[in-house]
Design a protein that fits this description.
Blueprint (H helix, E strand, L loop, with lengths): L1 H5 L2 H31 L4 H16 L3 H14 L1 H7 L6 H14 L12 H15 L1 H17 L3 H6 L4 H28 L3 H22 L9 H17 L2
Helix pairs in contact: 2-5, 4-5, 4-12, 6-7, 10-11, 11-12
Length: 243
């Protein structure tokens, strides 16, 4: 009954209308960008090649987003999952915040058997409210922040990393540390090593991609690293969970 409501025709129509508007907006900007390129004297063949390469190198990385939609749709329905990961949401954010919100309201996690329309509304509200921080910060503080993240002439001369490089690196180290601590805690408290194993397997797959991207100078592989690492880790999780 719950999933019928989460996948109702009304929700599909609302989400479809929103995504159609965004598609139209993207099309308008693409046409304007192409015309602007022509106006400044860019070669039409170069512009067409850029469009073709962008489509090619966007298709496979988007598989990771599709995986996120499939992962969420089993409990939150297809329309909401489709909307969240098509407009402003991020794969890492949506899955984690939905899980946190579900746990906070007393559920054991994102399980369809425990979900209700009230829980769906609460989780949707938490996911939507949380993601608003990014646009609001951009509107209010981006001008000042951009001055800080740009490299100073001294940093350019000495080769030192900019503030943005250090901040992003620190953020990812913090996120990875938090997740790994959670997985280790799960293993210590329950004996379930599948989350830890899956994370380590994904890290290993990503390390292989980094080796070929950085050391072997195969930069094109960077577009496939996240999606492929996720697929391999999910396959490993299924295999280890089936034993």
């Amino acid at each position: 009954m719950y999933l019928e409501q989460a996948n109702s025709l009304a929700l599909y129509l609302v989400v479809g209308a929103i995504l159609f508007f965004i598609l139209c907006m993207c099309t308008v900007f693409m046409i304007k960008s192409y015309r602007a390129g022509i106006a400044i004297g860019m070669d039409k063949r170069l512009l067409k090649r850029s469009i073709t390469s962008s489509i090619t190198f966007t298709a496979v990385p988007s598989i990771s987003i599709l995986l996120g939609v499939l992962a969420l749709s089993g409990t939150l329905g297809i329309p909401l999952s489709w909307l969240r990961l098509s407009v402003i949401g991020a794969l890492q954010y949506e899955l984690n915040v939905a899980e946190i919100a579900a746990t906070a309201i007393g559920l054991d996690g994102l399980r369809a058997s425990e979900m209700s329309i009230q829980a769906f509304s609460t989780i949707s509200l938490v996911m939507t409210t949380g993601i608003l921080g990014g646009p609001l910060c951009c509107m209010l503080f981006s001008k000042k922040y951009l001055k800080k993240v740009r490299k100073t002439p001294k940093q350019v001369q000495t080769g030192k990393p900019s503030y943005s490089t250090v901040a992003v690196t620190a953020m990812f180290i913090g996120l990875c540390s938090a997740y790994m601590s959670s997985y280790i805690g799960t293993f210590v408290s329950t004996g379930d090593f599948s989350p830890l194993f899956t994370a380590l397997f994904a890290a290993g797959a990503m390390a292989v991609f980094e080796y070929f991207t950085v050391v072997k100078k195969q930069a094109w592989l960077d577009n496939f690293s996240v999606a492929t690492s996720m697929l391999l880790a999910m396959a490993a999780a299924v295999l280890i969970g089936g034993r």
